[in-house]
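Need a sequence for this fold. Nothing fancy.
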């Protein structure tokens, strides 16, 4: 005799399928043009900027040197770019 799946298991399968569909459809809807940045957050206006538009903004350059441990070995890296906060 074959045991039929319970209503609970059917609901789990349907919920999982729905989540996968929503995840992939949302990801496809948010694909940005190559070389663009989507600026989100607590802003009055969201922005979609190209690399050229981002470079043209009057944002000062910033150099940050960080040191951290990678396992037991110390690592030091320097990053140069536009300041994301002021």
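Here you go.
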């Amino acid at each position: 005799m074959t045991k039929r799946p319970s209503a609970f298991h059917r609901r789990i399968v349907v919920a999982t399928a729905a989540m996968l569909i929503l995840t992939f459809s949302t990801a496809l809807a948010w694909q940005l043009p190559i070389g663009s940045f989507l600026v989100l957050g607590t802003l009055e206006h969201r922005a979609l900027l190209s690399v050229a538009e981002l470079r043209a903004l009057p944002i000062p350059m910033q150099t940050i040197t960080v040191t951290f441990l990678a396992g037991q070995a110390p690592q030091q890296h320097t990053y140069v770019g536009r300041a994301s906060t002021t």
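For context: The chain has one domain: 7-82.
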